[in-house]
Write a structure and sequence with these properties.
Elements: H1 3-16, E1 19-21, H2 22-29, H3 33-45, E2 50-52, E3 55-57, H4 72-75, H5 80-92, E4 100-102, H6 106-109, E5 121-124, H7 127-136, E6 140-143, E7 147-149, E8 154-156, E9 169-174, E10 178-180, E11 183-186, H8 189-199, E12 202-208, E13 220-223, E14 230-233, H9 239-247, E15 251-254, H10 262-272
Parallel strand pairs: 4-5, 4-9, 5-6, 9-12, 12-14, 14-15
Antiparallel strand pairs: 1-3, 2-3, 7-8, 10-11, 11-13
Length: 273
Amino acid sequence: MHEKERHRIILSAVQEKPVVTVQELVDLTDSSEATIRRDIAALHVQKRLRRVRGGAEAITPPQFVGLAGRPFSVNETINTSKKRAIAREAVELCKDGEPIIINGGTTTFQMVHFLASRRMPIFTNSFPIAEHLLKHSKNTVMLSGGTIYREQNIILSPFDNDVTRNFYARRMFMGAQGLAPLGLMEADPLLIQAEQKLIDQADELVVLVDSSKFRQRSSLILCGLARISTVITDEDIEDRDAAMLEAAGVSLIVAKGTAQSASQSREGSSLQA
């Protein structure tokens, strides 16, 4: 990740939370601790943030505390071709007239391109998903109520009496920050609370994650593997991760044409470094 992009993410993060730790910024940018400390020092000198012990804070404290995790605009540039192929497989599971829920995220957002010719009731908490479907499809779209979190482009409500409880879905499609033997992982408690309400409204839970998500972890568990019906991922999934899903009784769909060559992997690693 280039320095300008890292600085943009760091500055965005300190505007979302009172204090952001070095480790949180390492996770957000996939950079080393030494790199993040240098970035914080440079931005401190430029008076764009204030360096504190173990992290950084905004010069002007945020008026509105946002969600933990990378911004939507950053995530949508990562593994885009894999996400699109995964989304194509997800839409293949859908039938016209069948109600579905699509949770906000950059992988689930790719589903909109393949839903253009479909006709079904769709409930979502994603502002960009709803906007795209309204403009480019004839699907019936229902939005959840609540606060719009700009960085993640998602609508969340902490209240039980929102419209979520009034929608039934055959399937719910969602991404996640990580997927491990303990289950689906997310980074923010409010996100966990809202997504658990959505999961309760669907018969089947279909998880869309590229293979890198099997190596990512968080301190918060959204749900166990037993609640997941199907996982859709790419061809770079490792055998141990496929075996983990099989042992848990989770169906696995691998999107074709998504394998990353060794040379591409090396090139990507050198660019990140």
